[in-house]
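quick one, 235 residues, struct below
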Amino acid sequence: MAKERNPHGSGSIAPTELGPRLRAIRLRHGVGLRELARRLELSPSSISQIETGRIRPSVRTLYALAAEFGVTVDEILFDDVGPLHMPPAAARPAAEPGLAVQRAHDRPSISLNSGVRWDRLMFWGDEDVEFLEATYEPGGASSPDSSFVRHNGHEFGHVLSGTLRVVVGFDEYVLGPGDSITFPSSTPHRLVNDGPETVRAIWVVRGRRGVEAVAEAAVPEQLEQRAAGVNRKRR
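---
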């Protein structure tokens, strides 16, 4: 099947390719559609539409799926990253990365729900690392209003252009070009582009697989208000 092309000319993963891949992972783990929907607190219809390629998953849903099945987001999105069942990082022998070149016109990408696109910059199969360029269109966010993402690992972000609001727990930061941030992924967090300009950022997540998968956080009311931008911003 020919892959969709994104405006930057990179190879784009179509929803019709991602959906069957997600369904295959679910069936491989012996989980029914309704049971998966219950675990992720989504409707069976939403899961079905994602698996049939009718809708794209959000960042939050994608991380929840990866956490549920104990795989990396890379393993869900892309075909060429190795097996879908690997032991925890601590049980695997350390290995140094070899020489690799990822051409801009050849890098895989996927457009997710909520105005977010991920371009995979490089993959190192022996290490639990996700190395991405994240693009947030105006209004784009990693999760819906008043909700957060939470998972294993540690994140490193660097903004190339635009203004990105990053909420981590009870703290909030507005990052502009040249600004960087790092935080534990287990802290409830939300990334959103409130401005009129598209945001481009380099994002690295290390150790997302972890030993135990964490889908998302139970978010208190104060954090919901923070995610919606009710409280003050910190620069």
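The chain is about 25% helix and 25% strand.
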